[in-house]
Amino acid sequence: MDQIVDTSPGERRGDDPPGEAHPDATAPLRLWLRLFATSNAVEGELSRRLRAEFAMTLPRFDLMAQLDKADNAVTLGELSRRLMVTNGNVTGLVDRLVEDGLVERKVRRADRRSATVCLTADGRALFHEMAEAHRGWVAELFSSLDEPQQQALSNLLRDARDSVVARV
Amino acid sequence: MDQIVDTSPGERRGDDPPGEAHPDATAPLRLWLRLFATSNAVEGELSRRLRAEFAMTLPRFDLMAQLDKADNAVTLGELSRRLMVTNGNVTGLVDRLVEDGLVERKVRRADRRSATVCLTADGRALFHEMAEAHRGWVAELFSSLDEPQQQALSNLLRDARDSVVARV
DNA sequence: TGAAACTATTTTAGACTTGAAGTAATGCCG
DNA sequence: CGGCATTACTTCAAGTCTAAAATAGTTTCA
Fold this sequence. Notes:
The structure is a homodimer.
Chain A: H1 27-54, H2 58-70, E1 74-75, H3 76-83, H4 87-99, E2 103-107, E3 115-119, H5 121-141, H6 147-165
Antiparallel strand pairs in A: 1-3, 2-3
Helix pairs in contact in A: 1-5, 2-5, 3-4
Chain A binds a DNA duplex through helix 3 and helix 4.
């Protein structure tokens, strides 16, 4: 969690219009700075509320969201891919969720290397409760932006992500 | 690092146009999902390159960036505010940077509670080298977006951040 | 068949992060 | 002066995360 690089340009207010002769070499840096700051602010606030209201962490919530969406049992490897985190990370998260009785681990008979994970009844109930609150929080946090702005931002972010992913 | 919530809507391709009667209750969720995925992808890649090329972590780089920008010695508390992280976090980061000989800690005579930090000569030299590479990487990662797109995205992100910060 | 390659997961070491509690110096004010 | 709140920083416990090594099961193919 970081990224306050900004090796030079100040926060210029206004619509940052110029678009002058040679493009500002620090413009992408400012873009990244804002992307990071925004993402971080949202993540931090959601994290705080989840902790305060449900004694839950964001990573665990995200893992449960994948399980809820999947409907069926999912392997650890698949979870790792969907959450975009390492295998070892998923192992630990699942361990803790199992301790809390929110998910279940089952070894597959078909391939004894792999195990699947699914929500318990308790886990599913809790998740639905949290998900509803979570959806409301997200909508609230972005509520200064109107529909078209949110749409435009969403589209640009999709393009940005594609740009990044293509170069990783 | 997470957030793969997405409790329902698939990744609709195209420009997500509809804009129908009652606004999709999951639209903000999709926006947040994309924001997070993009930020995370960039952060991960910058982190990897920084580690590979300079044996440096992003948090330490960010801290050094603040010191470079500040020009003068900065107190730990000020660093904490600028990096938007807790005090305890800064203490540890500075400890490790001091071990590496990249920054210096000085107790202030005026107020013996507080200490200031500044880059060493080595630290400053290394930072400038890293910052140049870093700027290039960021520009590269976003290079699929043209100037106006980057500008538009940057502006929307500023609005989004303001929206979030106003509600935290 | 059996060795080598591959796949799925766990383990480990190291770093980062937070929130809460602890320590120490300073400032306020009766 | 002297107690008390405040401020600055450190310490601590718990959780998250990664990269790399280890473990174990499966597949391939000579």
